[in-house]
Amino acid sequence: MSLFPYKQSFAGSATPPGWKLHGSARMTGQGWLSLTPAQPFKAGTALLDVAFPSSDGISVQFDLAAYGGGDPADGMSFFLIDGAHETDVGGPGGALGYACYRKGQPDRRPGVSHGYVGIGVDQHGSFSNPSEAGDTGPGSRPDSAVLRGSGDAYDGYRYLVGASLPPLGTGREQPTRLLLSIIDRKVTVSVREDDNWRRLIDGYDLRNAPGQAALPATLKLGLSAATGALTNNYEVRDLEVTLPAEFPLAMTGPRTVRAGSPIGYRITVENKGPNAVPDAKVTGKLPTEVTGAAFGPLELGGGATAGTGTVTDGTFTQPLCLPVGGTAVIPLDGTVATGTSGSITCDATVTSETRANIATRYSDSVTTTVTAPPSAEVPLGMRGPATADSGKQISYTMTVENKGPDAVPAARLTGTLTPHLTGPAFETPQLSGGATAGEGTISGGDFTQPLHLPRGGAAVIRVTGTVERGFTGDITSTSKIETPDVVNTSPDKAGSVTTRVSPPKIDITIKTKNGFEQSWPPEAAGYVWSYTFTLAASENRVQQWQLSFDGLPAGSRVNPAVTDHWYTVVKDGSADGHVVIESPATGHSIEPGTPLDVQVQVLHRSLAESNEGLVYNLQGIALREGGR
């Protein structure tokens, strides 16, 4: 019969197959094997009377409940005996049902038969006292985990090593989980704390133990407990016997992250042996605030292989096959939901159904503090002509301003131009408030303009092209502002301009352009650009018309110091940079073959703020044709 793996819950009332109960040991029928009641001078032993090879090592873990005694005593033991033999119960009291009791005294009792090693969980402390248990020892050591070596009847059971024992669980509701491993004659004793193993005795080598018997070819395992004048109930359940393997797990992740940002975890598992783990499984729980989680490409080494991992409803599972020396690094990536704040925790555990994980850390977690992402109000305004002539140049103006509170170091102005615009190109950006611009690109009608916008920074971006000659109808171009690392609180993140394109009826050019400083009147002081526009009828006589252009900087307008012009200023540019002038109904028509010159002056705050007098979307609009 192979014991690996072997599980016994002790849930029933009948003695499980293969087990022999001696002394006070009995099945409770309540999910526990009782080794001693809380009565004086009791000793109980449960022996699994099935031999197994000693060469592969063994790991045994179980729950221990110790309760009921006012001054709890004495303790319990786990032991191994030569597999060629059986045994009855060992000594009571401090002998813990393994060693001989009070050797040489009238009330002496023998220890187990052909014992190889006994591991004591000693509350009262007498398992370390040679006058109470076995041979040699430092004297009473309460609350200790203690190893005693090989022995038979009254021979041996030498004290080997001890370690301080944390407080045991006080009842069935809070049992203590113990892990006992013997690998290549090295003994390790661990107790579970916070979902990991705390080692009490770490790899004590029985080969160096004085008087230790040779390792038998086969072994049998047993559980014992004992009381003396002081008493306690000692009960066990959920015994697991498996091949041991040390396959620790470590997990890393960010200590802080901003809401709305990606988050990545890395889970590392390594099999340090001595046995392969064919069915390792990494499982864990993602925070509910992490969305879109998925495994990245696994990094496997040392012959490790992986099954298909899953992430479902926040729970992840990754099967692994880990030979000795095998390693796996499991990336797990997602995004922290916007609006998240406070701490979030992701955990991971590695387990196996067929191997006992003797690593001190087989479970890990990462707690991350989520902070609010930077935010800024970055509105986008987009302007362009409502009407245009086919074959003529038009411009789109996009204005972006960071009103804070945070900087936007990697903004992108993107958009799509109408396919009926030829030769589109960026004008030189107008930047203020510390804003900077990267190199803009236009490809296939799509444009991108990188921007760095500190708080208070602003940019005016223009794209200019020529409407396809011969095209008439509506054209639409769009734009949007993207702030990948910053929440844009502005509702105005996108723009769109639709332009009605008609055949040209008026050709318009700039004949002259001159600039000068103006100091009078004081309320109109600034820098003036004076234009002479030449308007020519394309085919028919144009009796009444409008001339329009846009792109004036903020604070600019048609020069108010000049009031004797014969045309009407419909829009002076002060509101949105758009200027419209209109001819009278009669007297200034445009005759075919006879162009008409029109002078317009624009006042700016200063030369530096005049954008060199550039105007955009210059257009002549025929209001009435023909007539005299």
TrEMBL record:
Residues in DUF11 domain copies: 255-355, 386-485
InterPro entries named among the record's database cross-references: ConA-like_dom_sf, DUF11_rpt, OmcB-like_DUF11
Signal peptide, first to last residue: none
A Pfam short name: DUF11
Domain of life, per lineage: Bacteria
NCBIfam families xrefs: B_ant_repeat (TIGR01451)
UniProt protein name: DUF11 domain-containing protein
Lineage, top ranks: Bacteria, Bacillati, Actinomycetota, Actinomycetes, Kitasatosporales
